[in-house]
Amino acid sequence: MNKFFYPKLAVNNIKKNSKTYIPYMLTCIGTIMMFYNICFLVVAKDIEIVQDSGSLRQVMLLGAMVIGIFSLIFLFYTNSFLIKKRKKEFGLFNILGMEKKHISKIIFFETLITSAITLTVGILSGILLSKLIILFLFKILSFNATFGFEISPTAILASLCLFGSINVINFIFNITQVHLSKPVELLKGGNAGEREPKTKWLLTIVGALCLGTGYYIAVVTESPLAALNLFFVAVILVIVGTYCLFTAGSIAVLKRLRENKKYYYKANHFISVSGMIYRMKQNAAGLSNICILSTMVIVMISSTISLYTGMEDILKTQYPKDIIISAYEISDEEAKTLNEIINQQTSAAYIEQKDVIYYRSTELLAIQEGTYFKPVENQFDTMDSISTIGIITLEEFNRMENKAVELKDDECLLYSQRGSITENELNLNGYNITIKEKLMSLSSLDREAMASITNSYVIVVKSLDTVNRISASMNITERVDIRSYYYGFNIDEDSEVHVNLINNINSSIRESDTYGRADGPELSRESFYTMYGGLFFLGIFLGILFIMATVLIIYYKQIAEGYDDKERFDIMQKVGMSRSEIKKAIKSQVLTVFFLPLITTVVHIVFAFKVITKLLLIFGMTNVPLFAMCTVATIAVFALFYLVVYYLTARVYYQIVS
Amino acid sequence: MSLLQVKNLKKIYTTRFGGNPVQALSNVSFSVEKGEYVAIMGESGSGKTTLLNLLASLDKPTNGEILLNGKNIVTINEKDISGFRRDNLGFVFQDFNLLDTFSVKDNIFLPLVLAGRPYNEMDEKLKPISRQLEISDILNKYPYEISGGQKQRTAIARALITNPKIILADEPTGSLDSRASDGVLKLFNEINDDGQTIIMVTHSVKAASHAKRVLFIKDGQLYHQLYKASMSNEDLYQKISDTLTMIATGGDRNE
């Protein structure tokens, strides 16, 4: 026998199955390209120039891992789809006298050819694309790009290893599939007399419960710290719920519809409901995959975009003043030294301090139960009710607010930045104090950033004696004069001057015998850009990958359905259904299958919206309208994309059916 | 006036890439009276399936007329043709053409649902038909759960439920064993006795011997016809066999 027999046959097979193989190979190429590039960014020399290159590499490494795991699952899934479609072909070979080992040989050559093509093209186009990608990344990070072209052997090797092993796994799976089946079964392939799916009430109820609980958690959670813990619980519940409802719930609903005689025996409902019952049985998993992937894409892209575009807002919340010097637990003496250092450095640089504020406070962490506050014993218990309390003296309050309020020993003023106290008395672990007045605002303290994550209160008391008594009651043993110190001011200078001043103050503090740290938006801007820009980049990058996966799943679904439906619609035409009626029926059915996941996705996102805004608070992102806008825009773009894919695949579908 | 009149029917197939045109029917004329049971016989490639497709309005003739109740069905436009087919014709196929996604009952209802009839009316119509065809107890089963004979009886019920003017049957016994075939043929005689007009295309001499009239087609032309009149099934069987032998051995019509 000609030694090129098997390779030739393999090439022919690939050509013959081009309708399914070309999208598969394109996806392989796309995934390889993206994987090469993300690996490239982990090791690229150009990244060195970014100030915080270590954390940027970390972000990219995380991305590489996500893409790697995703590629494995996704390519395995598509491959199993392909091989299912081709079982009939292998059955024919078997009956024509080929042994299973010969078929395995053909599959081997097919795998070899497809993986050689996809790896070569994927890595080459990945290398070509890498320059563009790094330029894009630098654009996002607002860095000037370097020139020169870099090829990373590490990234090439990583891609070869990963996708080589994926191909080996797929190959082993395919030949075991062929070996396990009998020729007659192979010939029958997918369409062995299908039974009507049973209604699984238990699964439906479980699904509804999971989804309901997930939604409930997402809507009810108020505190960002609790959100951080519960978010993943909610996500898993919603994923489980989605799978259950798509597989069991949909069939239960459809069967209900079928029992309603008035509804069911209408021409368009009759055909679509009966078809959908079978459709859902085969496609529920695929549809819920699409739904979950889409939700992930939209959440990821919208939140990273809003973080990136809201960066200035975030900086402003984190740093209410241009230059901020803060210290925890220092004495009055040390605070005085800090003042001297600050004044010395500013006057040395001929800089004028504007909007100066400074105050000392005692900071407490407490667990709030209504008006009762108790000390925190375990870091992890009841994150939800944890609150921060800042205690300042009346003297300091009057100075900063320019007022002359008077208080008795057991009286205080209360300002709730976040959280609420309804009574007129506070109980600080047994120490009772009456609230004389609830302040509506206390903006002069620059404490907004603190209030973003936990409940936060400011208590103004008469004297240090009262502070002392409260501290004792809350089991704090330090000396009364050891307190926090905050000093902040604005300056009218260039960014460079900001950075220099901050650095100078910090080095003076280090040389002195006091403690504290100077900081400011200008100093942090670059590391913010690196961090959020890196996340933004990763969001888009993964978003594209997930969208690609969604597109392919949808495409394969449509093709598979097209072949199944061809026969059905042939029969209906013979029985007296017109071509236009058929087209209408197909359209409504395809539309439902197509847009069910998209609609579910939107519902998921509506419910998740609140909890995501809470999570963004942890990153310092407080601009909810901005996030809402980003979400709506992302959904719109995604829906548009989805629509295009729908029209393209629907065309292939019509071609197959008619 | 005859229920169905076929006049000078001609059908030429041209392949898409301009190959040689194939003449499937050259000049066929005949008529069918109301209440008749006509079998059309012929070898493979004789043009009988083409004829049936034209009668079923699934295809258009190159030339000629088909008049149903005096109305030319060839000129009905594409938009109305499905409705026409649904209201006037009932189909029975060799491979049943039942939909796996529907129960037996829903398969029978299909043409009525497409015509937009209310459920109560459909249910009323189903009762006598299902009783006659002995499928009352399998109405809620699915096609993959029932036997071939039951499938064909379901298909016949689907054809009957619209009260069609003509039932067109294409090899109705072709996929059935002899017992199930006998059942279906007996059924056809029964519904014909009730006044239903039937046109059946078949290979099977036995099936044709149940008809009242047998038309023979050869090379796209009407070759011969036999009337049953007062003959028994066995006598007609013998005559049909003789005619087929004559066709096969190339005998001339006038012999």
UniProtKB/TrEMBL annotation, chain A:
Domain ABC3 transporter permease C-terminal: 65-163
Membrane topology: Multi-pass membrane protein
Compartments where located: Cell membrane
Entry's Gene Ontology BP terms: transmembrane transport
Listed InterPro entries: ABC-4_Integral_Memb_Prot (IPR052536), ABC3_permease_C (IPR003838), ABC_permease_BceB-typ (IPR027022)
Superkingdom in the source lineage: Bacteria
Positions of transmembrane segments: 21-44, 56-78, 107-136, 156-180, 201-218, 230-254, 286-308, 531-556, 590-612, 624-648
Keyword line: Cell membrane, Membrane, Transmembrane, Transmembrane helix, Transport
GO cellular component entries: plasma membrane
Pfam families referenced in this protein's UniProt entry, alphabetically: FtsX
Family: Belongs to the ABC-4 integral membrane protein family.
Name used for this protein in its record: ABC transporter permease
Species assigned in the record: Sedimentibacter hydroxybenzoicus DSM 7310
Automatic annotation (TrEMBL), chain B:
Protein name: ABC transporter ATP-binding protein
GO CC terms: membrane protein complex
Domain (ABC transporter) ranges: 4-244
Family: Belongs to the ABC transporter superfamily.
GO molecular function: ATP binding; ATP hydrolysis activity; transmembrane transporter activity
Bilayer-spanning residue ranges: none
Xref: Pfam families: ABC_tran (PF00005)
Keyword Coiled coil listed: no
CDD domains listed in its UniProt record: ABC_MJ0796_LolCDE_FtsE
InterPro entries hit by this protein: AAA+_ATPase, ABC_transporter-like_ATP-bd, MacB-like_ATP-bd, P-loop_NTPase
Keywords from the UniProt entry: ATP-binding, Nucleotide-binding, Transport
Transport as UniProt keyword: yes
